[in-house]
Amino acid sequence: MSLACSPDHDASARYHSMNTDRIHTQRIQTLSYWTRPVTIEPLPGGITNHNYLVSDAGHLYVARLCVDKTLLGIDRRNEVVCHRAAHACGIAPELVHQEDGVLVTQHVSGRTLASEDVRDLAFIPRLVAVLQTLHESWDALTGEILYFSPFQTARTYAKTAAALNARLPGDIDRLLEDAGRLSRQLGLYVPVLCHNDLLAGNIIVEDNGDRVWLVDWEYAGIGHPLFDLAGVCANNAFSESQELALLGAYRGSVNECDLRDLRILKTMSSLREALWAVIQTVASDIDFDYVRYANENFEAYREARRQLRVPVTAP
């Protein structure tokens, strides 16, 4: 079953987006961090927040308008703690200022990746090195942070979407019941700090090619290390051989238990992303086709679930 797009909602979104940049620019200009009047340009690509490139006295920054996103489970205090830990480890740009719902980070002069870049077998070891650094970053944490479970997030998103009268698949209850059974098939693991949103657009390679950066830490938290790998696979359409290369580079070798867990979490990554998009169909003012995105991720979930070689039995 595919979700249908509401023409009325599309018209409303276009209407509300007309003045968005002007309003946000005025808000950014008033921040106390700037040393002089700044120049501001919209940055394309964000599907959760509005992002802007800011020039202040020759220095470049990215300002992100962080409107209330509690519907998506975002906690800005948690995000700040996770972002600062990642920066301390050298894998995230510095967060230099936060004020009135705006986060300001240093601008990275580099290239935002596309999915085909992430799938490149030559790039996988570089990404793995960044993830290993992140997953070993306990000492960099300086505050309490949230625990992230894609299974719980999927259940919460489905309830939120229903409360908003967003259109859910007719078999959503069965999907969530199956997800619950899958959660009980996972092996034991050591919780680590995870990014939990590894879309290609959240990975940047510096112009000189020396460093790989991760951005947008709003879904970060303590969780399963293989969920970050699963998100890479699901969000970037990895083939089976690319999955094996990623897992092998991360673990040093591939064993059956890790591969099973990776594929369970890959399935959940697509379901979580689909339900996230369902909420956004009624909650976001960003000009993006969330209906199409939801349908693509529901289909990715169903395909991953069909291919999952894990017998799932009722508890």
TrEMBL record:
Residues of the signal peptide: none
InterPro entries membership: Aminoglycoside_PTrfase, Kinase-like_dom_sf
MF annotations from Gene Ontology: ethanolamine kinase activity
Matching Pfam families: APH (PF01636)
SUPFAM superfamilies, per the entry: Protein kinase-like (PK-like)
Gene Ontology BP annotations: phosphatidylethanolamine biosynthetic process
Keyword Transferase: yes
Ranges of residues in domain Aminoglycoside phosphotransferase: 39-250
Keywords for this protein: Kinase, Transferase
Cytoplasm in keyword set: no
UniProt GO cellular component terms: cytoplasm
Gene3D superfamilies: 3.90.1200.10, Phosphorylase Kinase, domain 1
Name of the protein this chain belongs to: Putative choline kinase involved in LPS biosynthesis
Taxon lineage: Bacteria, Pseudomonadati, Planctomycetota, Planctomycetia, Isosphaerales
